[in-house]
């Protein structure tokens, strides 16, 4: 599954544009393909124009032949336009949506890394779509490679683009190796050094990775720097970290907090069954009957009031990030045509 919704990534709008263009080309689509195949040949003197490439990007099917044609068109378009920068249309995000739509991550990664396409995908949204596509297809090492390129480019002056940071830490979490943990720690140290404040989702991925790598002390330090300490994933991770540190009695105020703040108008505040089980095991390990008795009383209260969920922590961590309704009013083409605008739809849902 993807981390960001297709609406946030603009794939829904791309899909609608495909339908319109396919209708326009209903009787001439095959002829257009043949013509573009001839034009895309490097030996041909014919140029690939902006409209040609835009149309083919929306007509493409998920076949090797179509993808090879689009690849050749992009390479020629990029080559011929190095000295002819008249067009204002920014292709990067649209091309990445095309690859996302036909689910071809390897081809998307290859084009992004191709030196001949340098600058073509230098947009924050292009990075986000590509990394999400790679994450969806479990190409976690490639997600990290893309992020390394992004950091060197510093597009729009950003060394740590927020959405890209979330995605690279998600990849590190999924890899769950000593190497990915070390990468995540070094990245987090960089945030501190440069005064960057990552989004909550980035912090929860990093903290969960630390827990999985038997470093609950690192998890707690990461969580202490995140916003909204009462958020469900942060609460669960803090309780898990304290349990792993053999400090289960310190979890009681956190567990009790949901009983004190819950109301009929709010979404039910919950803890994962697996976290409660972990905490109970940690309490028993202490060998103190009074603390065990207090925990069991608290556990019964949580169960009776439906504050314990069977949903896994992993599912909560990887829940899809979707856009707020008001953000849909902003036409996405403005982002693509005017790259200086740094529109970030739906960020309020990610904090």
TrEMBL record:
An example Gene Ontology biological process: mitochondrion organization
Coiled-coil stretches noted in the UniProt entry, renumbered to this chain: none
GO molecular function term, any single one: RNA binding
GO cellular component: mitochondrion
Name by which UniProt lists this protein: Uncharacterized protein
Organism encoding this protein: Rhodnius prolixus
């Amino acid at each position: 599954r993807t981390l960001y919704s297709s609406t946030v990534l603009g794939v829904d709008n791309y899909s609608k544009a495909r339908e319109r263009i396919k209708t326009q080309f209903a009787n001439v689509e095959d002829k257009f393909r043949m013509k573009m195949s001839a034009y895309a040949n490097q030996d041909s003197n014919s140029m690939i124009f902006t409209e040609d490439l835009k149309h083919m990007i929306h007509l493409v099917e998920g076949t090797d032949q179509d993808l090879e044609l689009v690849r050749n068109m992009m390479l020629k378009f990029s080559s011929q336009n190095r000295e002819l920068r008249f067009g204002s249309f920014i292709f990067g995000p649209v091309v990445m949506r095309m690859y996302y739509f036909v689910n071809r991550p390897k081809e998307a990664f290859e084009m992004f890394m191709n030196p001949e396409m340098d600058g073509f995908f230098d947009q924050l949204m292009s990075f986000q779509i590509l990394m999400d596509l790679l994450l969806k297809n479990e190409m976690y090492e490639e997600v990290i490679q893309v992020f390394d390129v992004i950091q060197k480019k510093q597009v729009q002056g950003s060394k740590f683009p927020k959405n890209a940071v979330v995605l690279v830490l998600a990849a590190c979490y999924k890899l769950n190796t000593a190497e990915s943990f070390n990468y995540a720690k070094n990245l987090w140290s960089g945030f501190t050094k440069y005064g960057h404040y990552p989004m909550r989702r980035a912090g929860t991925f990093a903290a969960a990775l630390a827990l999985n790598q038997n470093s609950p002390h690192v998890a707690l330090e990461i969580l202490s720097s995140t916003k909204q300490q009462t958020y469900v994933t942060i609460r669960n991770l803090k309780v898990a970290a304290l349990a792993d540190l053999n400090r289960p009695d310190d979890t009681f105020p956190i567990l009790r907090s949901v009983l004190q703040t819950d109301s009929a108008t709010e979404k039910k505040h919950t803890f994962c069954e697996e976290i409660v089980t972990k905490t109970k095991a940690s309490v028993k390990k202490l060998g103190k009957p009074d603390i065990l008795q207090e925990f069991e009383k608290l556990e019964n209260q949580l169960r009776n009031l439906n504050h314990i969920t069977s949903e896994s922590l992993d599912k909560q961590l990887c829940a899809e990030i979707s856009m707020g309704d008001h953000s849909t009013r902003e036409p996405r083409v403005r982002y693509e045509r005017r790259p200086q605008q740094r529109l970030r739809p739906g960020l309020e849902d990610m904090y």
